[in-house]
Amino acid sequence: MDRWEWKPATVGEALQAAVSFFTQSEIPSPRLEAEVLLAYGLGVSRAGLLAMLRDQLTDAQQARLGELIQRRLTGCPLQYITGRQEFWGLDFAVTPAVLIPRPETELLVETALALLGRQDRTAWIADVGVGSGAIAVAMARERPRLQVLATDLSEAALAVARQNAKRHGVAGQIRFARGDLLDPAIDAAIRLKAVLSNPPYIPSGHIPSLQREVAGFEPKLALDGGEDGLDLYRRLAFKAGLVLEPGGFVALEIGYNQGEAVSSLFAAQGFRDIGLIRDGQGHDRVVTAVWPGGKER
Ligand SMILES: C[S@@+](CC[C@H](N)C(=O)[O-])C[C@H]1O[C@@H](n2cnc3c(N)ncnc32)[C@H](O)[C@@H]1O
């Protein structure tokens, strides 16, 4: 955006200009994004923004809004600018150290809750690759008797997840551990009722062709699933059997075309009752599998 063109006198003019820049840059939902961004920049709600369209902007406000719009035009996702994303009806803090939680992942939470049932006894589950904490926090909120072991390789992601657990009053139910996949559970000899994960599952070679918001801004560690996208499932299929209780289960988010491959990996390790759950678009999105018995460590 050329700074010379940025001279809106009122909030309404700024909004109109932002919508037009975003439309030209083919940002999806340009009006919605412009409203959210300007409301954030002015420290008001969206309704508040719409009530002040005729207000004059101060020079400082004009400059701030210009900077925010330019940042969005570089491809930086709105959520990294505003520092928030809603998931499971809760407001999550997000930073560029974590994947922005996606609505599809709510299907994983729904599936895990259905498999757990009421869960009135205390039990441990794991959220492998906790990122912002979306899955761990939602599960802890829904099932107060659960203890969640939340692992991640990224210390910066764990810090964001801790902040979100505190924000939503479930810090006491979640143990955060830096480590590879389920190693923290293996090391602490924790037996798990369930292993949940939305692991990185994009084949390495596909990452550059993703939307620029994803490829250029979201952490590679949260996206890269190795050459065929299945690296983490392959290793999880082995490790989950070491820590699950008999009758415990895994519930994993997958890429739309990975259902068969991930099911086979878990079947090959001795998991049973493998299930594939489709999302609202009709794509395979969650794999579930039950661990029948113990395995020598
Ligand atoms: C796709 S993101 C999911 C984040 C969050 N659970 C969600 O659903 O929004 C995957 C996460 O796994 C973490 N991760 C990648 N490799 C890992 C590994 N080997 N062990 C543990 N965590 C890992 C990444 O740092 C990232 O936070």
From TrEMBL:
Keywords from the named record: Methyltransferase, S-adenosyl-L-methionine, Transferase
InterPro entries assigned: HemK-like, N5-glutamine_MTase, PrmC_N, RF_methyltr_PrmC, SAM-dependent_MTases_sf, Small_mtfrase_dom
SUPFAM superfamilies per the UniProt record, alphabetical: S-adenosyl-L-methionine-dependent methyltransferases
UniProt binding sites for substrate: 198-201
Catalytic activity of the protein: L-glutaminyl-[peptide chain release factor] + S-adenosyl-L-methionine = N(5)-methyl-L-glutaminyl-[peptide chain release factor] + S-adenosyl-L-homocysteine + H(+)
Gene Ontology MF, one: peptide chain release factor N(5)-glutamine methyltransferase activity
Gene Ontology annotations of biological process type: methylation
Pfam families: MTS (PF05175), PrmC_N (PF17827)
Top-rank taxon, per record: Bacteria
Entry annotated with the keyword Phosphoprotein: no
EC numbers for this chain: 2.1.1.297
Residues covered by the Methyltransferase small domain: 119-201
Binding site for S-adenosyl-L-methionine: 129-133, 152, 198
Domain Release factor glutamine methyltransferase N-terminal: 13-83
Family to which the UniProt record says this protein belongs: Belongs to the protein N5-glutamine methyltransferase family. PrmC subfamily.
Role this protein plays: Methylates the class 1 translation termination release factors RF1/PrfA and RF2/PrfB on the glutamine residue of the universally conserved GGQ motif.
HAMAP family noted in UniProt: RF_methyltr_PrmC
Protein name as it appears in the record: Release factor glutamine methyltransferase
Organism of provenance: Heliobacterium modesticaldum (strain ATCC 51547 / Ice1)
